[in-house]
Structure formats: structure tokens, C-alpha cells
Amino acid sequence: MDKKLVVITGASSGFGAALAKKLSAAGHPLLLLARRLDKLEALDLPHTLCCSVDVTDRQAFTQAIEQAEQRYGAVDCLVNNAGIMLLGSVVDQTPTEWQQMFSTNVIGLLHGMQIVLDKMKQRQSGTIINVSSVAGVKTYEDHAAYSGTKFAVHGISESVRWEMAPHNVRVITISPGAAETELLDHMSSEAIREDYKSWKSSIGGVMSANDVADAIMFAYQMPQHVCIRDLVLTPTRQQN
């Protein structure tokens, strides 16, 4: 198999599932990680290992990558896509929701990078793609904790890119705006969910998961000596 192994977290739906289909069609062997194993297996992709893994579980994350590398060779690309979006006012949002977001969106991302980066450095090749958000470069109402996690993703990515550049390892940040995903389903606030749906309708709809997956594919498929550092994409009619 001439194509190299790609690992995708949060691959059971949304951007992750759409990207998995595109990478598989391009011939890449895959390690797909998510908590919902049935959703991963339902994608029914060839040369693919599916594992039920919560990215906050460092041991399970490591074991899954080791298993995939034994089968398909070294990880060429890690896509840190797993994320939780729980919107709410900082005045009344629960610390439990803050912890859930920081654990998955930040600590899980750090786990993934630390697991694969040493080998990438040794090979002088590899790509990390961190899926952030427009909310990681600007703020919105009811986004305090969520934006905090995504600003952290940007800061971490910038720092790791600096460290990895001498080793020919790329670190790419993808920052989507409004898109169709299951992230809204995580929210406990029905009022915020309904406001978002109304806003989405007012701008004529949002991006599809395929739109974002295409952007990730574009960044990854550039030659190794070209690093698209930060790619921001939004619906054309999204003003903020």
C-alpha cells in the first residue's frame, strides 16, 4: 500500500466521518477513533481500524495507535478532530461543562500530538492537523468556555509548529465557521440551540461537513515542504 496511515479522532460523524470517506477513497489506510464504535464500523471503509476511544484516555489512545501502526505502518498524519461544544453564559454555565470541553478539546489534542510527534521528528516527516474554530480567533456571546478551548488550540498549534518546523513536521490549524455537525446536540441550553438554528436560517444555511473535509484534504495533500499554517473557512454569508 503506497498511501500512508492517517489517524482521525471524532470520526463517527461530521467532519471526521466525511474526511474518513475522502481519505479512504484516496487510498489511505485509516485509524478511526470515537466513543461510538457502531458509527465507525457503519462507515464500512477498507483498510481501516476502528476503535472505541475517548481521547481523554491516554492509555487507550496510545494502544489504538500502536495497533494501527503494527498493521499499516507509521502514522503520517494525525487529525485532532474530536471536540465538544457546550455553549452558555459564564455566569451560569456549570464547571462540569467547562471541564468536559477542556478535557476533550485541549487535553485530548495534546495526548494525540505527544503520542505521535517523537516518531515524526525521528523520520523528519509527518503532519498534525488540529481542527479548531472561528471561535478560536474571535469571541461570541455564550462562547466563553468553548472559545477558551479553541483559543488554546491555536496557541498550542502555533507553539508546536515552531518546535516541529526544524524537523520537517507540519502543524496545520483548520478553523471552520458555521457548519452542519452534531455539536449542537451536545448543548444543554435549548434557548441557545434554537437561537443558533434561527441564525443559521437567516444566512441561508451553513457549510456541509464535506466542505470542511475538502479543506482538510487540500491542506494535507500539499507537498511536505509546504505548510498551510492556518486555514479559516466560513459560509460566505456569515458576517462574524
Structure description:
The chain has 240 residues and is α/β, with parallel strands linked by helices. It has one domain (5-233): 3-Layer(aba) Sandwich (Rossmann fold), CATH 3.40.50.720. 45% of the residues lie in helices and 16% in strands. The protein contains seven helices and seven strands; from the N terminus they run βαβαβαβαβαβααβ. It has helices at 14-25, 37-42, 58-72, 95-123, 144-164, 190-202, 209-220, and strands spanning 5-9, 30-34, 48-52, 75-80, 126-131, 169-176, 230-233. The chain has a seven-stranded parallel sheet, with helices on both faces. Helix 1 links the parallel strand 1 and strand 2. The chain is globular, with a radius of gyration of 17 Å.
Task: Tag the structure with descriptive keywords.
7 helices, seven-stranded parallel beta sheet, Rossmann fold, 45% helix, 16% strand, 240 residues, alpha/beta
Largest sheet: 7 strands, parallel
The neighbouring-strand order within the major sheet is 3-2-1-4-5-6-7
User: How would you classify the helix and strand content by structural class?
Assistant: alpha/beta
Record field, number of beta strands? 7
Helix amount:
40-55%
Strand content: 15-25%
Taken together, the total number of domains comes to 1
Q: What's the CATH topology name?
A: Rossmann fold
CATH architecture: 3-Layer(aba) Sandwich
